[in-house]
Amino acid sequence: MRAPRAGACAVGGSPGGCHGDGVALRGRSAAAAMSSERGPALPFLPGCAFRDPTPGTRCRCAVPMVPSSTVELVSKSVMSSLTKTSFHRSQTLGYKNGFAFSRLPTVGIGGERLYVNQLSQAELDELSNTRPTLTYGQARQAPPSGFIPAHVAFDKKILKFDAYFQEDVPLSTEEHYRIRQVGIYYYLEDDSICVIEPVVKNSGIPQGKLIRRHRVPKNDRGEHYHWKDLNRGMDITMYGRTYHIVDCDPFTQAFLESQGIELNQPEKMVFDPYTEMRRMPLRMYITPSDFDQLKQFLTYDKQVLRFYAMWDDTNSMFGENRPYIIHYYLADDTVEVREVHKHNDGRDPFPVLIRRQRLPKTFVEKQKTFPSCVLEISDQEVLEWYTAKDFAVGKSTTLLGRNFFIYDCDEFTRNFYRDKFGITDFQPVDIKEKPPEEVPQVIPPYNGYGFLEDSLQNCFSLFPKPPRKDIIKMLENDHKVLRYQVALESPNPEDRKRRFILSYFLSNDMISIYEPPVRNSGIIGGKYLGKTRVAKPGSTTDNAIYYGPSDFTIGSTIEVFGHRFVITDADEYVLNYMESNAERFPAATLQSLRDHFRPRQVVEETAKSDVPALGTSQQELDELIVRVQEELKLHNYLNNSSIREALLRCDKDGSGVLDKAKFLSLCNSLSVPTNAVLVNKLIELCSCGEDKINYRDFLKAFPS
């Protein structure tokens, strides 16, 4: 068999037998090819080799004689009929370790390899690398490329566009539309948009954030505005309002140009015509003054004229003359009026009556409807302002409707007026008011209710205070009481027999009178006079003189609220107290008490020395009874007949002997001085044992 010529296929050796895919078109050439696979029928030279044309295998010759699509179709059908010898399905049931399991087929009908159920090339590569991994460990993979999320990459990166929108003004005759400038902010991190209108003072329009930050819808298809949709010189509609973008900031321009967006030329911002009309100042043609205010300020800075003035407000209700201080500041010709407060003047401490300002002196003639009370006063309404020459001592000045009379000034003001205006008359005006005549206070007469000092406080104050007390005297003389026996001086014979106990309290100089009850006297005893201060006869409410311990002598008469009492006796404590404080009492009072107590002291001394003992004779008992009778004469208030009747009434059996305890209680009820030494000794002599007494011998001292 001869070799094919150049350009011919190895199958059949004829030109056009193969077209790139090495597919024979003749049966004979295919058989020759198969025989060449079994044995070397063809020389193994370039262009003469032949292999079994399985899927994916091509003939090495490539002579394009016919269209490739036709050759490929024919070659596949011919080769499949030449090489496929097995047409059964692959086994999918397998056994492992005695257990049946299903497996995927690896080849199809005719022995063709299936790539559907096989591993991919990436998986094969991974499996090929598994063995070195088990041996040498996990291979280090290259770090992934850095990923930056949008909210980090575009954090705080905002695109700002200057825009405006126009709104109609239907209810105004001065403007028909309004231009409102806004700023459109686009946040790159989340593609949100916020529209903010700068706040204009006194605009009367709710301004600020018009559209809150969020993703603004672009149309009804669910799309949102993107930064690619924004550019200068374009209109953008958001929620029915059209904004015209005129410009952007440098950062926005640089960002958009970096993204390849061609920006339009910037436009000028359109302003509101009505606002601009109001901002236009009125043209005024005023000849500038040649007065140098800066020179005045530098020359007279911190130099102030001070005037002392009075505001006469007596014409109004509850008005008065009030002092003020007028300050005139030479630096800018301003005036300030300050109040002068005095201690306990009853006014709130407002320091300034008129704040520092230029005060008008003469106004321009104006219409009656000019609302001057609500408008600031300017040079157009004032012809003349107050200056330093308008203030002078001894003259009145009207400041904002108030008439101030200047009566004096300080030394700096005098020197300024002397050097500036040549004024030398600064005689201050005496404005002191004459003190009002004192109206004598007439104190009403004492009505007898309460203490004199306590009632007098109602005449001095609306809320009377209690009179002050001598606390030291109260502490030193606490519980110290001088007791006297007094008799009522009365033309009625029944009242002349009444006896009272007068107590004088040294702590507060008060007197109380108590009447001991006497049985069958017909007079109810008890408190006769409560604790009170008793004034002497002839004393007045203006100069009240009260009774004191010096006025209480034996036999003296005191008058207590129209009742006259005679002092007949006193306690021994009175004599002891006056003798211990002899320098505080008159000698006559002390001598009167000594003369009164001398007979009693003599009797007591005699009783202590000459009292007969028990078992004495009847003569000695009689002598003791005589002495007791002499002592009882001092107690002229005792009623002997009542004592005798009371003792006889108690002795029901007529034995002449009574129980000693009962006898003593009966004597105490009849005011018998059982504590006296001689009387006590008489009771001992008349005693029969420890609990009995012979009252018949005791009654001998009380003759009827």
TrEMBL record:
Sorted UniProt keywords: Cell projection, Cilium, Cytoplasm, Cytoskeleton, Flagellum, Repeat
Domain EF-hand: 638-673
Gene3D superfamilies the UniProt entry points to: 2.30.29.170, EF-hand
Record localization: Cytoplasm, Cytoskeleton, Flagellum axoneme
Keyword Kinase: no
Single GO molecular function: alpha-tubulin binding
Gene Ontology cellular-component terms listed: axoneme; mitotic spindle
InterPro entries from the UniProt entry: DM10_dom, EF-hand-dom_pair, EF_hand_dom, EFHC1/EFHC2/EFHB
Signal peptide span: none
Example of a GO biological process term: cilium-dependent cell motility
Name of the protein: EF-hand domain containing 1
Organism: Cairina moschata
